[in-house]
Design brief:
about 270 residues; eight-stranded mixed sheet; 11 helices; globular; binds S-adenosylmethionine
Length: about 270
């Protein structure tokens, strides 16, 4: 029944699930698929067995069901939630308080702010950090001003802002950093100069850098816009990169609308726990 309304394609960029290691992201998607595909009773049985299967995860001991995530995924399937909202709830399954994460395209700062809330603990101060960058000075200023409005000065100190190209991300993070997530929201700055956009060459360099610095159990997350010139080629580069990652170490997938050809495409590359 639900499948009739399901206008989105979810496909694995590297091959299908091959191992049964503890992967929160995989756990989440698997749960979701089962929930829409099964009758309620059998669904509950499967959910119980999944809980048992994953409850030994050393770093992620989250409970089922995950209401926020299910709401957003179902909302996305029915055209009521945006790709960025899906990305944020997926991040929540991976990011822990105290983590270091990278916003590779901070733009107006919405993603940076969401990440900041996930890594910091109000009572502790800067236990986690967001390294946020953008090639445009205007974007850095916009992000800075959003943070000024949304958080106090102490919390803002947990965000490090850099006016650089994301292909240089390794130059700005401290040596031997354990980076939990690198997130890209590709394209142009909303409300800004539409001719300044992410381009395939530097996006690919940045993806390679992200692959090098990401810790096991980490995530490379992308929202790829394909409505502007060059967007489709950039998606192809992203897909080719994700498809080339070894399935023994990575789980890579995308979410794409079938009947909205210009809708943004979500790509997730999850690095398995060691
Ligand atoms: C879609 S916007 C990002 C939106 C942002 N994440 C937010 O929450 O508001 C894309 C951003 O990528 C930036 N950008 C383009 N090329 C870049 C590059 N090579 N390195 C870093 N940022 C880049 C643009 O300046 C633009 O601000």
């Amino acid at each position: 029944m639900v499948a009739r309304f399901f206008q989105a394609e979810m496909s694995m960029l590297s091959s299908t699930f091959a191992r049964s290691s503890s992967i929160p992201f995989r756990k989440t998607l698997t749960s979701f698929n089962f929930r829409i595909a099964m009758e309620r009773n059998s669904c509950l049985r499967i959910r119980s067995s999944l809980v048992a299967a994953f409850s030994s995860s050393p770093s992620h001991s989250r409970n089922f069901p995950i209401p926020g995530l299910e709401d957003v995924f179902v909302g996305y399937l029915f055209g009521r939630k945006k790709a960025t909202e899906v990305a944020h709830v997926v991040w929540e399954q991976v990011i822990q308080k105290g983590d270091m994460v990278i916003d590779a395209t901070c733009g107006n700062g919405n993603d940076t702010l969401a990440m900041l809330k996930m890594v910091t603990n109000d009572s502790v101060g800067c236990d986690g950090y967001v390294y946020a960058m953008d090639i445009q000075k205007d974007a850095i200023e916009s992000t800075s001003s959003l943070l000024d409005q949304a958080v106090g000065p102490k919390e803002k100190e947990c965000v490090k802002l850099f006016n650089i190209c994301h292909s240089k991300m390794e130059e700005i993070i401290p040596e031997n950093s354990r980076v939990r997530m690198v997130a890209f929201n590709l394209g142009y700055l909303p409300g800004g100069n539409k001719s300044i956009i992410t381009v395939s060459d530097t996006t690919l360099s940045a993806l390679k850098a992200a692959e090098r610095i990401l810790m096991p159990g980490g995530l490379i997350s992308l929202v790829v816009y394909i409505g502007h010139p060059g967007g489709r080629e950039e998606l192809e580069v992203v897909e080719a990169f994700g498809s080339s990652l070894p399935v023994s170490d990575w789980v890579c997938c995308k979410l794409q609308m079938l009947n909205r050809p210009l809708a943004p495409v979500l790509v997730f590359m999850f690095k398995r726990e060691e």
